[in-house]
Write a structure and sequence with these properties.
The complex is a heterodimer of chains A (934) and B (249). In chain A, the strands form five sheets. Chain A has a 26-stranded antiparallel barrel. In chain A, strands 8, 9, 10, 11, 12, 13, 14 and 15 form an eight-stranded mixed β-sheet that branches. With 934 residues, chain A is mainly β. The N terminus and C terminus of chain A are likely disordered. Chain A contains six helices and 49 strands. Chain B has a twelve-stranded mixed β-sheet with strand order 7-8-9-10-11-1-2-3-4-5-6-12. Helix content of chain B is 21%, strand content 37%. In chain B, β10 and β11 form a beta hairpin. Chain B is built from five helices and twelve strands. Chain B is globular and about 50 Å long. Classes of the chains: A mainly beta (934), B alpha+beta (249). At the A-B interface, β2, β3 and α2 of A face α1, β7 and β8 of B.
């Protein structure tokens, strides 16, 4: 043979050979594989020949059997959502759902199977429960395992769940942390107002309640993990309720002036959901969904200054309307309504989530505060009374579009906005004196405020995954918002300062008009790129640029009869800007049970302010280095531990550096400190979840510590007229730590389940009073024991005993406060013959008598309701009830902070009797599927 | 009372749980009893005039079939109770279910069916028939096997219920039913008033030598046979659908 010919042919042959060899496998490389191992839970022996079925939309796509080491695998799967079903004779089925990405090597790891006989044992012993599942950091409650009466709302259901509490403001606390996002079927339901869902949706429509932690939207976009995560609760409705319509109408009245009328209707199809609700309520069941305590525009858009405690609270301007009230003082009247429309288009590729809300809330509150300030030299008593009538109206909208352009690319656009009008009338009376009775100062003040605020924010987020490599992706996020606030207020005040041991006085009268015009705008752009280094390691880099600008014009006029004098010294026209540039990386490691990440970000923040009336410029840059580390170990799906350390920095607010003059309260003056630097917060946290399915025993625990370097702390100097001068300074040595521990277990064969909780919190803070540095040590230990007895369809009883031990001590004045409060909460609910049921709940509070608080304050609140059900499926319920049966609902708070002791008395709801009618409706075809028990 | 009963029940359950050892089997020999409620079927598809005709036939037609198979191959064919017994005359003229022989090759995912349509012998060669099975949580005891229920839809609208035993590794079943993670021991097609349920299962010493592919007949695949039947019976009205369905099983 001719060797030349052969040489020529060889490359061609090789070429053909490679084509035939590589082309089929190339096609396959786009496809994904799945594998796992099946073990017996009790002895971890592998299970051979177990059936593994892979379903998609409940249709079997493929099946296989495990081999003698328990191993199974599926090759060449199409990407998508799958359900896995594992069956083995005499063992309980295992079901799980997951999504497979293109080219992914999905490893399900060890799957534990439980012998059916063991489960039967568990079920027979405790047939009514077993409604909790923990998977990773998600806790799932099966709603039907927790009995609620007919007509109960989601809120009633949540109160039954171990590890979940609902406080009287409707705020949900899960595993020791406030739930900040409540979803219905994975989607927002009327924006950020969780009470729309909890107070209006029927508990019987709920299939499961999931609780999990997620990163904040900001952390998700920038990749910057500051260790903070928010609790999310997802309420999944029963499938039978996702088609057709359902809703309820209820009306309640006490025959004098308290009423509660609600209506809600939902119409769901597979893709489209429409919900509408309306309510008019002036009962204790008003959902106060935004922070009523925030004094709108009183002195600054995002600052609330309490002249009594000498504390300033800073509000971020984005979320001051989002969350519930922190205090239930006052009598609210609310008119509320909304419409939500969700739909999916183009083969579910484009989803739309939109809602509109209207809310009007009138709050009448009267508060009396007795405050004692203890200094080295003397004791000052202050007594103040405040009457507030607050009327706000808000229109808001929310829009969210998600477009899955293809399986690799997502574009999400959101926009929210609201327009709020506020009218507030405040009357305020203050008298201060030394302990011996010598008068110090007195003030009467009346403020009328009329304001409007408009806000719009938007976000566009684009994410693209590369086909070429699994795990390689980038995303770009753009955020912006604009807002404006206009307000006019009239201040009339008489301020009397006593001198010469209280014998003589000097009166300052103030009659001014203040106009405020605040405008802010913000833009922020972030880009993130993620690259998998190998199967275990991945690196993400991100850069972001933020710009925000606040323009505030504050004009003060002397409101004399003849001329409206412009007061230079009390007016300002400022332009405040923040520029923030940030860049950094996150290195992530993930193996079977371990995940680990290290990150470091560098940011440069520049604050600058120009003021045109008094003519000054100020600018200061800060450089921050923000490292973080996170380690997680998942022992099993029910057991997981996570530890993290993050450093975050807090810039001083411009008002702390260079405050604008504010004379609303001439007895307290804020002084600037241009030498302030940023504070550094070292956050350490450990989380632990552990569940034993067969024993129905669950543990949720967390511990945290926060050490602050250069903490921004307020120092105060009280002069001889009782005037306080405040200044912010940097302090070292402030720290706090604490934890929470929840334990839930069913007891033996009885229908009793036990709930234990303990949450300690220790806070050590440096204080500066009249130039003296002291240390304030405060501790709080909060423990509870709860028992629940479940008698199935007959009824249930629950009792919970809570003890809170407070301790605080300040080294300056050796003021020591050690006291406790105790609460016994109990409820019962029983079915009676003839279609009746009766239920009651009780809160008995005891507050200890101490050296500081001379009187023990006890009260017992009892609410009760008798219900009569009509029709076979009980869709009509007539109730008679009483709120505060013993008429003991006193509005009372007391606290000790630093050197200040305060007691607070406010108006709130007292005893009343009422009648209520609730009618539930549903489309006929599925009328009985609400889980109605005979 | 209740508290006494519960431990008893538990003990009984546990006893059952431990006594039935899960035994997996690669080979299997099953006798299926096929029942067709011919009367109801014909009334539904052929109308009232069938009433008279039914006087001459069994209202419920019962036949026995044999299934012999492994995880690789299987064969399904008519098996009279007594070897020399002739199949009874059926009111379903033109449908000779007893002539069906179904040979499955699970390794190659292929199926060969021999059937007699009227008087014509057909040999259908195609892939194993594909079903979109939906597996449920329901179970049913068949001859001591805890069989799980699965449903599928054939001919666009006809629901099939199948019960399979996961201990039996062969993935076949009566007629062309297959593709579940275990041997199908029972099938019900309510719309056709027809059921197949195993009346005996043998898992030891199964003679696999009888398994061989049928070879004779006019060559077809599923589609071509269906088309041929639909065309041939196009004047038969409502009953055409029934015959096409029956012959496609």
């Amino acid at each position: 043979m001719n060797p030349k010919k052969l040489r020529l042919k060889l490359p061609i042959l090789l070429f053909l050979f490679t084509i035939t060899l590589t082309s089929p496998s190339d096609l396959c490389s786009q496809n994904s594989n799945l594998s796992g191992s099946i073990l017996i839970i009790s002895n971890l022996k592998p299970i051979n020949k177990a059936v593994v079925v892979l379903n998609q939309d409940s249709v079997m796509k493929d099946f296989t059997r495990s081999n003698d080491s328990g191993y199974f695998s599926f090759m060449n799967l199409n990407p998508g959502k799958y359900q896995i079903l594992i069956t083995y004779p005499e063992y309980a089925d295992y079901v799980d759902t997951f999504t497979i990405q293109t080219g992914e090597e999905k490893k399900l790891g060890d799957i534990n199977m439980i012998r059916l006989s063991e489960i039967i044992k568990a079920i027979v012993i405790k047939a009514y429960n077993g409604g909790i599942r923990i998977k990773g950091d998600t806790t799932e409650y099966v709603a039907d395992s927790f009995k609620t009466r007919e007509g109960a709302t989601v809120e009633d259901l949540l109160q039954r769940l171990p590890g979940v509490q609902v406080n009287k403001n409707g705020e949900v606390i899960a595993q020791g942390k406030k739930v900040e996002k409540l979803l219905v079927d994975g989607e927002e339901f009327f924006g950020d107002d969780p009470t729309v869902a909890t107070k209006n949706l029927d508990a019987k429509y709920v299939e499961t309640v999931k609780v999990y932690d997620t990163k904040t939207d900001n952390a998700k976009a920038t990749g910057v993990d500051d260790g903070t995560s928010i609790k999310v609760m997802d309420i999944k409705l029963k499938a039978a309720n996702k088609k057709g319509y359902f809703g309820n109408v209820s009306a309640g009245h006490d025959l004098t002036n308290i009423y509660e009328n609600r209506a809600m209707v939902n119409s769901f199809t597979e893709k489209r959901k429409i919900s509408a609700y309306g309510l008019a309520v002036n009962s204790p069941n008003v959902g106060l969904n935004w922070d009523e305590k925030n004094n709108f525009g009183s002195s600054d858009n995002n600052r609330e200054f309490d002249p009594l405690s000498g504390t300033t609270t800073w509000y971020s301007s984005n979320d001051d309307f989002q969350y519930w009230a922190t205090n239930t003082s006052g009598l609210p009247t609310s008119k509320d309504g909304g419409l939500a429309y969700n739909n999916k288009f183009f083969n579910k590729k484009l989803s739309l989530n939109s809602s509109y809300n209207y809310k009007n809330l009138i709050l009448n509150s009267t508060e009396t505060t007795n405050k004692t300030t203890v200094t080295k030299e003397n004791v000052i008593n202050q007594r103040s009374t405040q009457n507030v009538v607050n009327n706000r109206t808000r229109h808001s909208f929310k829009l969210r579009n998600e477009w899955n352009i293809d399986s690799f690319t997502i574009l999400r656009v959101t926009a929210n906005g609201n327009a709020t009008a506020v009218k507030t009338k405040t009357e305020y009376l203050l008298n201060s004196s030394y302990d011996e009775g010598q008068k110090l100062n007195a003030q009467t003040r009346q403020v009328d405020l009329d304001g409007n605020s408009n806000k719009v924010d938007w976000n566009a987020w684009f994410n693209h995954k590369y086909k070429s490599k699994l795990g390689r992706y980038y995303n770009i996020s753009y955020n912006g918002n604009i807002g404006s606030t206009l307000s006019n207020s009239f201040i009339e005040s008489d301020n009397e300062l006593f001198y010469d041991s209280g014998k003589q006085s000097n009166i300052q009268k103030l009659n001014q008009k203040k106009n405020e015009d605040l405008n802010n705008i913000r833009h922020s752009l972030t880009a993130l790129y993620n690259e998998p280094l190998n199967k275990k390691w991945a690196l993400a880099v991100s850069v972001s640029e933020n710009y925000s600008k606040n323009i505030s014009k504050k004009s003060t006029f002397n409101n004399e009869i003849i001329n409206n004098d412009f007061v230079d010294s009390l007016s300002s026209n400022s332009n405040y800007q923040v520029n923030n540039t940030q860049a950094g990386f996150i290195l992530k490691y993930q193996r079977k049970k371990i995940n680990f990440s290290v990150q470091n970000f560098i940011s440069r923040v520049e604050l600058s302010q120009t003021e045109s009336i008094r003519n000054y410029d100020y600018s200061k840059p800060y450089i921050n280095m923000l490292p973080g580390i996170n380690f997680g170990y998942m022992q099993s799906k029910q057991s997981r531990i996570n530890a993290s350390y993050y450093l975050t920095a807090n810039q001083p607010q411009i008002q702390q550096i260079q405050p604008l003059t504010d004379n609303t309260n001439p007895f307290s003056i804020q002084k600037g400190n241009p030498d302030l630097r940023q504070s550094l917060n070292h956050n350490i946290g450990i989380n632990f979840n552990n569940g034993k399915i067969l024993k129905n025993r669950w543990i949720w625990a967390r511990a945290y510590a926060n050490i602050v370097q250069y903490d921004l702390t307020q120092s105060s100097i009280i002069d001889s007229f009782g005037k306080s001068i405040f200044q912010t300074i940097n302090v070292n040595g402030n720290y706090s730590y604490g934890g929470s521990f929840h334990y839930s277990k069913s007891i033996g064969k009885s229908p009793v389940s036990l709930d234990l909780e303990y949450s300690p919190y220790i806070n050590v803070q440096k204080t500066f009073i009249n130039g003296l540095m002291g240390t304030n040590n405060s501790q709080s230990h909060n423990g509870s024991v709860g028992l629940e007895l479940d008698f199935g369809d007959i009824g249930n009883i629950g009792i919970d005993f809570r003890h809170v031990q407070n301790y605080s001590k300040n080294t300056i004045n050796a003021l020591e406060n050690n006291n406790w409060t105790q609460t016994i909460s109990a409820y019962f609910e029983f079915m009676l013959p003839g279609g009746f049921s009766i239920g009651a709940d009780m809160d008995a509070n005891r507050r200890q008598k101490t050296a500081i608080f001379k009187n023990q304050v006890n009260n017992t609140l009892i609410n009760s309701e008798l219900n009569k059900y009509f029709y076979k499926d009980r869709h009509l319920i007539v109730s008679l009830g009483v709120y505060d049966l013993l008429n003991q609902n006193i509005g009372y708070n007391r606290s000790v902070y630093n050197n200040i002791i305060s007691e607070n008395q406010f108006n709130t709801f007292r005893q009343f009797f009422y009648g209520k009618v609730l009618f539930k409706f549903k489309n006929k075809t599925k009328a009985i599927e609400g889980g109605v028990k005979p | 009372m209740i508290s006494l009963k519960r431990p008893m029940m538990m003990a009984a359950l546990m006893f059952l749980g431990f006594s039935a050892q899960s035994q997996f089997s690669d080979t299997i020999q099953v006798v299926f009893e096929k029942r067709i409620n011919v009367e109801k079927l014909l009334l539904k598809y052929a109308g009232e005039n069938m009433q008279d005709r039914m006087k001459y036939f069994d209202k419920i037609q019962i036949e026995n079939y044999s299934f012999v198979g492994s995880t690789h191959l299987s064969i399904y064919s008519y098996k009279p109770k007594n070897a020399d017994e002739e199949p009874k005359r059926s009111a379903l003229f033109g449908y000779n279910g007893t002539e069906n022989i179904v040979f499955n090759n699970y390794d190659e995912k292929k199926c060969t069916i021999s059937k007699l349509v009227y008087d014509e012998k057909m040999l259908v060669s195609d892939t194993l028939k594909k079903y979109k099975w939906r597996i449920s949580n329901e179970t049913r005891d068949i001859l001591g096997y805890k069989c799980r229920k699965a449903t599928s839809i054939i001919n666009d609208s006809v629901t099939v219920y199948a019960f399979y035993a996961q201990e039996l590794l062969c993935t076949g079943g009566p007629e062309t039913f297959n593709g579940l993670p275990g041997m199908i021991l029972g099938v019900a097609v309510p719309m056709l008033h027809t059921t197949w349920f195993a009346s005996s299962v043998i898992i030891k010493d199964v003679n696999l030598s009888t398994i061989s592919s049928p070879t004779k007949g006019k060559k077809h695949n599923y589609n071509s046979l269906n088309t041929k039947l639909s065309d041939a019976l196009k004047d038969w009205g409502k009953i055409r659908n029934l015959y096409v369905m029956l012959n496609s099983l």
